[in-house]
Design a protein that fits this description.
alpha+beta; globular; binds glycyl-adenosine-5'-phosphate; about 475 residues; seven-stranded mixed beta sheet
Length: about 475
C-alpha cells in the first residue's frame, strides 16, 4: 500500500514544475493538466525507454507515427462508432451525470463491476444505496450507452464539414498501415509495429489527477503473428512478461504495488478474446495501469478488409500460394498513467536528524535530471569553474545535467531531493585550490540522493565515473 496521498504528489508536482493545472490563469479547464519542465523530461524518459526496449532493441519491431485524424470509416470498421461506450447515469435531483460503473466500484470492487450488464447498473446503484457525489440523493436514471469519441468537423465551410473523430486509440493507425509497413520494411511474421501518440476520449468522469483525462498519450504495439503457426497463448504469455518487465525492471515501479489481472469474459472489449491488465495500487485502490497484452484475433485487419475493400492478407514467403490474415497481440500503455504511478511510487518522506526530507526516489535513468552541478557560492571565479565541469559533462556524456546556483547549498540539496536527482556535484573553494580544508585542488564532492554519502573525486574521475554510468 503506497504511503503517499494523491494530494502530496499533486502539490509537489505543482511546486517543483512537474505538472500544472491546464489553462490555470483562466480558472482552468476541468481535468486538463500541463507538464512542466521536469514533467516533460520524466515523461520523455518513460517514452524513450519504451521505444528503446520495444523498437530499437528488437529485430521484430518497427515504429510508426500515424495521423490523429483518420477517415471516419476507420471507426465504423473498428467498432468504435457502435461499441465504444460507457454506462452514463443522471442524478434525477441535481442532473449531474456520472459513469455508473465507476460509482459502484468503490463498494463492489473492480472485478464485480466489470461484469455488470448495462441494464443492471441502475438497479444496483439503488440497491447499494449509492449517493450522488454532487448532491447526496439516491435517485438514478436508467444507464444509457454514451459514446466516448470526440466528434468534430473537417473543412472550412461552416456547417458543411464532414464529421470526423479525434482518435480514441493509436492502434487503428497501425492497422490501416499494416500493408504499407509490411511491404516497405520487408517484415516477416511474427512482427510488431509500435506507435506513441495522443488519444482522446470524452470520458464521463475524468479525475484522480492524470489518471483519467480526456486527452492522453498512449504507447501501443500491434504484434502480428500467424495463428496457424503459433499458439496465441504463447504470444500472450511472452508479451505479459515483457510488459511486466518494462514497468518493473526498466521503470523501477515497485512490484509490491503491482498485480496482473485477467479480464472476465463479460468485461472484454468488443475486439478481445483475452486481456490481462497490469494494475497499480493507487491511493484510491487498484486501477488499470496498462494492458500487458490483449488478444485482438484477426478482428481489426478483417474488419478493415471488409470496410475498405482492400486486401490486407499476408503472403507466406515460404509458400506464396498461402495467404493469411495475421492475428494480433496488443500491449497498450498509457504514458500519463504510468508517469503518475512512477511519481506516486517515488514519493518518500524521511527523517534525517531533526528534519523531514521529501525525496523522489526515481530509478536512476528515469529521474528527469541525472546530475546537478552546484557551485558552493556565487563568486564569479567559482561559478566559472563549476561551469567548466558542467560543460564537460554535457560534452562527454548523454546525461541530463542541471546547473543550479540559487539559494543556500542546503536549500539546493533539498530541491534536488524533491525532484529526485540521483547525484549532486558540489564545486567549492577546494576545487579552485583556495581552501585545502574543503578538499584538494581540482576535486569535487559528489553526493548520493539515497544514502546521502559524500565522496571526494577529481574532476577527471567524476567524468569517467559518469561516462560509465549505464542508465
Ligand atoms: N488500444 C487499446 C486501448 O486503447 P485501453 O485499455 O482502453 O486499450 C490503454 O487503453 C491504456 O491507455 C490504459 O491502460 C491507460 O493506461 C491509458 N488510458 C486509457 N484511457 C485513459 C484516460 N482517459 N486517461 C489516461 N489514460 C488512459
Amino acid at each position: 500500500m503506497p504511503a503517499t496521498s494523491l494530494d502530496q504528489v499533486v502539490s509537489l508536482c505543482k511546486r517543483r514544475g512537474f505538472v500544472f493545472p491546464g489553462s490555470e490563469i483562466y480558472g482552468g479547464l476541468a481535468n486538463t493538466w500541463d507538464y512542466g519542465p521536469l514533467g516533460v523530461e520524466l515523461k520523455k524518459r518513460v517514452k524513450d525507454k519504451w521505444w528503446k526496449q520495444f523498437v530499437r532493441k528488437r529485430t521484430d519491431m518497427v515504429g510508426l507515427d500515424a495521423a490523429i485524424l483518420m477517415n471516419p470509416k476507420v471507426w465504423e470498421a473498428s467498432g468504435h462508432v457502435s461499441s465504444f461506450t460507457d454506462p452514463l447515469v443522471d442524478c434525477k435531483k441535481c442532473r449531474q451525470r456520472f459513469r455508473g460503473d465507476k460509482l459502484l466500484e468503490e463498494k463492489l470492487g473492480v472485478e464485480a463491476v466489470a461484469v455488470l450488464k448495462i441494464e443492471q447498473v441502475q438497479p444496483m446503484l439503488m440497491a447499494e444505496k449509492i449517493k450522488c457525489p454532487s448532491c447526496g440523493s439516491i435517485d438514478w436514471t436508467e444507464a444509457k450507452r454514451f459514446n466516448l469519441m470526440f466528434k468534430t468537423k473537417q473543412g472550412v465551410v461552416e456547417g458543411e464539414g464532414a464529421d470526423i473523430y479525434l482518435r480514441p486509440e493509436t492502434a487503428q493507425g497501425i492497422f490501416v498501415n499494416f500493408r504499407n509497413v509490411a511491404e516497405s520494411s520487408r517484415m516477416r511474421l511474427p512482427f510488431g509495429i509500435a506507435q506513441i501518440g495522443k488519444s482522446f476520449r470524452n470520458e464521463i468522469t475524468p479525475g484522480n489527477f492524470t489518471f483519467r483525462t480526456r486527452e492522453f498519450e498512449q504507447m501501443e504495439i500491434e504484434y502480428f503473428f500467424d495463428a496457424e503457426r503459433q499458439k496465441w497463448e504463447d504470444v500472450f504469455d511472452a508479451w505479459k512478461k515483457d510488459s511486466w518487465n518494462y514497468i518493473t525492471d526498466t521503470l523501477g515501479v515497485s512490484e509490491a504495488n503491482l498485480r496482473l489481472r485477467d479480464h472476465e469474459k463479460d468485461e472484454l472489449s468488443h475486439y478481445s478474446k483475452g486481456t490481462t491488465d497490469i494494475e497499480y495500487q493507487f491511493p484510491w485502490g487498484w486501477g488499470e495501469l496498462c494492458a500487458a497484452a490483449a488478444y485482438r484475433t484477426d478482428y481489426d485487419l478483417s474488419q478493415h478488409e471488409k470496410f475498405s475493400g482492400e486486401s490486407l492478407k499476408y503472403t507466406d514467403p515460404d509458400d506464396p500460394t498461402r495467404k493469411v490474415t495475421p492475428h494480433v497481440m496488443e500491449p497498450s500503455f498509457g504514458v500519463d498513467r504510468i508517469t503518475l504511478a512512477i511519481l506516486l511510487d517515488a514519493y518518500t518522506e524521511e527523517t534525517v536528524g531533526d528534519d523531514t526530507r521529501t525525496v523522489m526516489k526515481f530509478k536512476p535513468g528515469i529521474a528527469p535530471i541525472d546530475v546537478a552541478i552546484l557551485p558552493l557560492s556565487k563568486k564569479e571565479h567559482l561559478i566559472a569553474k563549476a561551469d567548466e565541469v558542467y560543460k564537460r559533462l554535457l560534452d562527454e556524456t548523454d546525461l541530463n545535467v542541471e546547473f543550479d546556483v540559487t539559494g543556500s547549498i542546503g536549500k539546493r540539496y533539498r530541491r534536488q531531493d524533491e525532484i529526485g536527482t540521483p547525484k549532486c556535484v558540489t564545486v567549492d573553494f577546494g576545487t579552485l585550490g583556495e581552501d585545502e580544508a574543503q578538499g584538494a585542488k581540482d576535486t569535487v564532492t559528489i553526493r548520493d540522493r539515497d544514502t546521502l554519502k559524500q565522496e571526494r573525486l577529481t574532476i577527471g574521475e567524476l567524468v569517467e565515473m559518469l561516462k560509465g554510468w549505464k542508465l
